[in-house]
Queue: 4 jobs
Job 1
Amino acid sequence: MSVPKRTPTAILISGTGSNMTALIEAAQKPDYPADIQLVISNLQEAAGLRKADEMGVTAICIDHRDFKTRTDFEAELDAALRAHNIEFVACAGFMRVLGAAFVNKWSGKLINIHPSLLPKYKGLHTHKRAIEAKDVEHGCTVHWVNEGVDEGKIIAQSALIVTPKDTPETLAKRVQTLEHTLYPVALASALTHY
Ligand code: GRF
């Protein structure tokens, strides 16, 4: 039986890392197509950094505030990914917009999860905006990253029904639960197509 190729993959985070945790857990299965080898946070205080370390994944901080320009920060990010022989990158709550030079270098190897049913609600405050618009459906999207913010081609989506009792906080929780199932499936799917 042939051994399935497991692509060396990194996850970029800025915070809690609950999606990162879901991806690392999925990749613990030997037949999962990603081998999560590196987690990078732009913030040292990101709880996800500690979590990744506990889960046995190399976790480093590259603080964007240590660089004069976004280009310099992204050059360091790119160098770290290459130094670790990473071939594919999944953003999971990474709160920096990635510039054209970085995105073009990683084109077709860079994905992101966003808490809305894109193309609706690109950017921030997606749950509040869905409630204000009286949407009956809301959810999350995994998409390829291109030069536009939250504009790349959609890989997979997961939806839920918004109830009259929902607040931005309850919706955020409910959507995150969907994200934890969607992202591992979408990453596996992306890896079979890249
Ligand atoms: C997720 O809701 C994701 O959609 C958004 O940021 C949040 C990150 O949460 N981009 P976590 O750090 O994975 O817990």
Note: The first strand starts at residue 7 and ends at 13.
Job 2
Amino acid sequence: MKIWFYKLKMPLISPFTTSFGTDVNKDVYIFKMEHDGITAYSECVTDENPFYGPEDNYTAFHMIKNYLVNIVKELPDHEQFQEKTKFLKGNNMAKAAMEMLLYDYYSKAAKKSLYKYLGSSRGYANAGISLGMDDINITLKKIQDAIDRKYKRVKVKIMKGKEIEILSAVRDQFPDIVLSADANSDYTEKDFNIIKKIDRYDLVYLEQPLYHDDIIYHSRLAKEISTPICLDESITSPEKAEKAFEVNACKVINIKEGRVGGLYNSLKIIDIVKKNNGHVWIGGMLETGIGRAFNISIASLNDIDYPGDTSPNDKYFTNDIVKNPFKMENGEIKPNNGYGTGIEIDDKYLEKYKVDSGELL
Ligand code: OSB
Ligand code: MG
């Protein structure tokens, strides 16, 4: 078996601003594994800085290189992978990068498309768009474009002190769209009075208003607002999802495979959401065509009942590193029908954006 890494720096079509900062490039580790005539790929969703969650590209690479590759080498099945990596606390994004490499490998070995390997699929993902903060006129124009392209939900980023300006401008112009807002944990338990004002904008949900690892304050907040709460950052495992429902901290969960340690845990969380009559959708981390193919595959499962942050590749990159980027029709994106994620790597762009590479095994 061989495993290689590629570190890429890919320019984003437009800068992406959240309450925690602005990304101009996508700095990302890609992994390639060859074994038994099968080539598998995955990507790690960490960024250069630990501003969304506690991991970054440097911590993840350390975990992968010095711990995880040796576990991948044994080709554990998906459950065994969880068992064998339990001794490493946290570091879910690093684990997920290796776990998903194995999912691509195993679905290819089974001669199945990943989306069929994962479960019962409707055959397409419902697409929503996530818009970073911008000059408000740019945001309004991007929303009109999104409506024209038939996106099924629009999510805007907000931050403390800017929420009313952003949401009132959006609602004035678009009174009827399916709208949500994501604060990326910018508020605290002292801000409930500001957050309550968000109720008047009729959002389908408010995403992660409070601390990145909190459940209890979200549960208190849920009692004080009528807008449903969606948790993103706080849900880092199936157990965390159970606890969140136990204390009514949320009605909706945004699953990012990276944040929860991979696809196996994502599938468990989907079951937990169903058992609790909640809602669930698949988020995004501005992935390249590789990570995107995993997202679209899982987002196509029947149990995913809300549109995700699952845009086609051309929202992010002029030239993605795949030859078969996704296309959206009527707000729907079909996963690839090839084996595994079905992506075809475009070596030309992989080389062009490469800043480092090497062998891990
Ligand atoms: O909170 O959902 C988030 C991007 C980077 C970090 C956090 C988030 C996001 C997004 C982008 O909202 C979703 C996408 O990939 O389009
Ligand atoms: Mg979010």
Note: Residues 182, 184, 207-208, 232, 254, 283 surround magnesium ion (ligand 2) (CB under 6 Å).
Job 3
Amino acid sequence: MQVYLDNAATTAIDPEVFEAMKPYMLNHYGNPSSIHTHGRQARSAIEQARKKVADLLNTSPAEIFFTSGGTEADNTAIKCTLQSGNFQQVITSKIEHHAVLHTLQHLERTDNITIKYVNLDPNGSINFDHLQELLTINGPALVSLMHANNEIGNLTDIKRVGEICHEHQSIFHSDTVQAIAHYAHDLQEIDVHCMVGSAHKFHGPKGAGFLYIKAEHKISPFIHGGAQERNMRGGTENVIGIVGLAKAMEIACQNMEDHHQHIQGLKTLMIEKLKSKIPGVQFNGLSDCADNSLYTILNVSLPPADDNEMLLFNLDISGISASGGSACSSGSNVGSHVLTELGADPDRGSVRFSFSKFNTEEEVDYTVQKVAELYQVKA
Ligand code: PLP
């Protein structure tokens, strides 16, 4: 049996999304900047996609900019905010995705920005009192805090972060890559200046994402060399990817409640089965806590064993694709900065299982069975 449980790394394209993209691969191939019919067809598809994304986020199309994905959108939000504003100070957490952390650490070296890290509670939750304290003591800053952690699934109350930032005249950027199209984001309710999405995390194509920039938050262009994206991002647009992104987001948002229930059901089933079959199993962060954790991610901490470093390899041999850390580091041997920050025991084996609407109970049964077999062999 082949089981794909690495949906936080990337998801399968939904066949309906593929159908929506196909005409733009085969027939409507015009350059959206051309003024003839072929060009106008492509331009119209981009603007319809922009309107769709904006409607789903309850905001204006003028605030949506298409990018090559989450990493570019995070880089842009951070670099352009710091270049355009008077901020030299950034507040973030040590468990952000590298698209945020490495960007900030680079700017710390090249642009003399100061980074302050907000304290985390032992389970990885943001300590809001410390965030308030940092802003009170140090004054306005760019605050970059993610909505849903890509390794342990912890959810942060971004509405509350937005309110705190507003109180302190600060700019709020949120890496929402793992949460967009899995939770409703109403931008009339959340006080955020920049927010990002990536199509391949919700059954859309790879290489297509977006950056929301609040109208009042004026930043300079991200890529020079063309008038595309209203002079903000030069370069011929990825029409096929943009069409796929909007379609995938539409499907996800229309069926959000059903998908949520189905996937949460699989995650709960896996938690129960693992607990019943593997004595000493634990869950990293808030992973097993239904209300405060992304329903698509379960980060399992398995008891110490000699060949724990072979865990993912052994699962792979059994046909199960999962991850041992951040999506972007899967395949590499670099340890997880998130689990290290949480003080996780390095002798325990950590596996991130991440689910999608395409997974089944049978796949969960099979996976738990294989994990249990691996542990019986070791015992
Ligand atoms: N931010 C988070 C939280 C992610 O999980 C990822 C991808 O794993 C990214 C950013 C990067 O997104 P992309 O792969 O679209 O560049």
Note: The pocket of pyridoxal-5'-phosphate is lined by residues 69-71, 74, 97, 99, 146, 150, 175, 177-178, 198, 209, 327-328 (CB under 6 Å).
Job 4
Amino acid sequence: MRIDIITVLPELLTGPLDHSIIKRAQQKGLVEIHIHNLRDYAFDKRHTVDDYPFSGGGGMVMMVEPIDLAISDLKSKTGYDEIIFTSPDGEMFSQKMANQLSCLKNIVILCGHYKGVDQRVRDHLITREISIGDYVLTGGELAAAVIVDAIVRLLPGAISDEESALTDSFQDDLLAPPLYTRPAEYKGWKVPDILLSGNDREIEDWKIEQSIERTRKLRPGLLDE
Ligand code: SAH
């Protein structure tokens, strides 16, 4: 898979995408992540990428031309399945969407900044708009990092214990069961007996029961889906 991210603040992305599973997935060649500075596509000497809104009011708007140049440049070298824009009014990001996106070959993610982007970018260049939640961030970089992290850990081989990604919360519309590790008792706080029983079948049943119970208690809406 190949992910190209267009941003005015590359520094915000290099850190989050250069550690742990995401770093290893890149080293293993499962994913190529390319971060592009939008300012490299600015056409004036000062590398301006924003301007005042025609509608007045505070804040700056990212201009259509540098973004068009950036996306056209990428498209001239690679075919993309989706050109994604991160936006608080976009489709809500979910595990389902992460699964779906992880099956694509090449995607672009455009990070907004300031007040947002010129609407013509969204009308003519973007194929999908994604929000990571009903709140407003300073820029789309953290949203892009969240989206990329959720996608990349799903790529086959990214997580060494294959089963581990499939048994995470939301994969089957259920929350994950509770986890325990050694010691079996700490300050009198005990691990459930069943987990020490060595009976794999009963442990599997217990995990499913716990998942259903937790989902019923914490996220009953998931059970209706
Ligand atoms: N004026 C916009 C918010 C701009 S925030 C509005 O009222 O909707 C600046 C940029 O941060 C946005 O263009 C978007 O790219 C990003 N952003 C902010 N909140 C986000 C969210 N919840 N999900 C995804 N991207 C977000």
Note: The beta strands are 2-7, 32-37, 50-51, 61-62, 82-92, 106-110, 116-117, 128-131, 185-186, 189-190.
